[in-house]
Description:
The chain contains five helices and no strands. It is an all-alpha fold. The chain has a domain of 71 residues.
Amino acid sequence: MSLTWIFTYVLVFVGGPLIVLGLLRGAATVGAVRKLGLVTLVLVFTAIAATMLGAPGLLAAGLLWGSWVISMALVGQVLRLMVESQGARRWTAALAAVGATVPWFGILVARAMAG
């Protein structure tokens, strides 16, 4: 396994969940949901623009990964707004952190399909 794959694995399975948990530390408010949604949209549109302008694919992939991780925190905040119990706080944090690792499986499928 190359150093690139090890770095990607650590980034996805350690970095992503830690970012999500950090973003979920604050109170669940409508303002927090709006900010997370705005950042997600900005990252997605920046990735699209970067690709159209000929930027390296790694930049677009990184921006899309960041938007995915932040969108998992967004989902966690929305769920916390809907269900206000201490147990729900723990479960939403756990599920959002696990959701941040989903792109890894997409990478593996793409690699398998590429041969």
